[in-house]
Amino acid sequence: MMIKHTENLKKLPKELSDAIARLSQSENPPAVLASGALAETAASSRVRISDGKLSVTDGPFTETKEVVGGFAILEFKSKEEAVQSAREYMELYRKYWPEWQGETEVRQIYGPEEITFETGRMELKADLKHHKK
Amino acid sequence: MRFMMMVKSAENAGAPPKELMEAINQLTVEQSQEGRLVAAGGLAPTAMSSRVRLSDGKLAVIDGPFVETKEVVGGYAVMEFSSKEAAVKSALEFMELHRKHWPGWEGETEIRQMFGPEEYEFEAGNLQKRCAPNT
Predict the structure, then answer these.
(1) Pairing with B70, which of B12, B43, B84, B130 sits 20 to 30 Å away (CA)?
(2) CB atoms A106 and B112 under 8 Å
(3) What is the domain extent for residue B78?
């Protein structure tokens, strides 16, 4: 889960932070493998390859309106469950920080057990690929 | 200090060559043994992903693909370093593997320090960082 928003934000209200903290005490909370807030892009860097050349660029990064400000790695049985959880999370923002705009991007994470090198290049295993539109 | 490394590239770049993945696996084993690697993985294509968006007080679920940006996050690693300079150096080594084993690939690793609850406090009812990095 990646939470994206503009960088010129006011600080998170305490009511929202308390509501987020209460999520972990709900009936069946998802297992949290890692989560955190990310430093502002002004304090961050990028290492880029372009035309075979490596370069380091220091932030701020201003080419996109919204940037990833925080993330959580969570365990769910299905993508539907993950989207539902993201919905509940965003609902807390709607309730406790009404002027906030942004989104939670929900992406499945693959480890070595979900990929194959049959063709000499990395691919998703066949039974995972057909979920793709 | 904990860092999030996000690897971004165009989605139509194709699959990475086996040689690159072997070199990355080797690096991953070394970093795990050094206790630097907390978590890492590849992300599903945006065509298989969704966004839950809050805008003007309304919630909406949008299914991928997401095509409004040229490059998207395709993989990540959460790692421990003693400084941001050490994190950037490690990202350079990682990208050097891409340069060597996947000529023609274009993309970047974004290095962002991570903060957990212990690095925050509430002042005047709002969340504040205990001490801002690099400021």
Answers:
(1) B84
(2) no
(3) 2-129
The reply to whether B103 falls in a domain is yes
What's the predicted TM-score (pTM) here? Answer: 0.87
What is the bridge-based pairing of β-strands B120-123 and A67-75? unpaired
Domain ranges of chain A: 2-129
The verdict on a CB contact (< 8 Å) between B99 and A37 is no
**pLDDT exceeds cutoff 70 at A131:** no
Q: Which CATH architecture has domain A2-129?
A: 2-Layer Sandwich (3.30)
The count of CB pairs under 8 A between chains A and B is: 181
Alpha helices in chain B (DSSP H): 18-33, 84-101
| CATH classification of the domain holding B40 | 3.30.70.1060
Torsion, Cα of A13, A19, A74, A1 (10° steps): -40
* Binary contact (B14, A117; C-beta < 8 A): no
| Terminal alpha carbon distance of chain B | 16
Report the complex ipTM: 0.86
